[in-house]
Amino acid sequence: MSLLLGCIADDFTGATDLANNLARGGMRVVQTIGVPADPVSDVDAVVVALKSRTAPVDQAVDASLAAARWLRGMGTPQIYFKVCSTFDSTPQGNIGPVAEALLGELGADFALVTPAFPETGRTVFKGHLFVGDALLSDSPMRHHPLTPMTDANLVRVLQAQCRQARVGLVDHRTVAGGVEAVQQRVAALRTEGIALAIADAVSDADLQVLARAAQPLKLVVAGSGLAIGIPALHGLAPASRASSLPPATGARAVVSGSCSAATNAQVAAFIAAGAPAFAVDALRIAAGHDVVSEALAWAAPQLGQQPLLVYATAAPATVRAVQAQLGSEKAGALVEGALSRIAAGLVAAGVRQLVVAGGETSGACVQALGITQLRIGPQIDPGVPWCFAPEHSLHLALKSGNFGGVDFFSRAFELL
To answer: How far apart are CA 152 and CA 139, in angstroms?
Structure first.
């Protein structure tokens, strides 16, 4: 059976975010960790999760092309390249280079691009990305430790990353004109030699228009928001069967590596509510302390009593101070490595309900656990579902750093 949709996500939390929106619309979705070795059956869509957002450009391109070739072998008519709703990237990439490579692989000459997801406050207007009421460049994303976003003009951001492709705009007036107006604009851009076009979207209705207009295209580049309009294009409607998971059992834990404003608030709220918490310090790891063993020894007697938290989440000033001493790459690698080993140790000790906060942290933890596939379950907050990893009978929530309400960590377990 051919897939209705094949997806490539540039990080693991983004993959579950996309899969969540597809499942909410009635699609049966499997998320794979990396490119599968074998075909996947009895699903409508497959989301291939890569850890490529901050990888070297050539590695990101190669991994994305391998995923596209596997998905094409599964018969998908369209590739959905899922990027972050805050367009996390640098002037070197990776969104532009991967999009260009996918166009070449698919023999396509054009793709619509929109990270908009109004349900989570991400909107695009006149080509500029807003986070809530603030321009991207005025949001906390300007302090991101790996991909600081200091320009809200997505046409300019994407053009700087592209090696050959020219970037254009489908503005809000065109989108308001409906599907035919968007398709006419696409045709005009193609005649001008434009290969990638940022599309405005400030509402779910706009995303529905863009999804319909993009249906004939071989490639779309988007956040997860565009996915809300895709299941209906295939005659599907929301159904509980698409997001059912086995009953939850076992101990509960949270591992948090994100340093976003949202996750800082979630960590603070969890600790303020009296939940047990263990802080992971990159400087202590660098100094040779066995922080992993310390964290697991601290956790062992408390498992099963209430959810516990192991976190490296810190305020921007603290992150900058650590990076000044260790370098950003070394600091990130030390923390990711420690948190992933802690997550694996917690699961080995009986944790069967695990929340992981942060895209890079989620990728490291999933790889350390040896997870190859995730079934997508019910939504906790917009963009974040519960998933199920059969390898460990583990319920797992991979939360993007920017997503979720302030009480996310406690409320997530209440929904299982």
So the answer is: 10
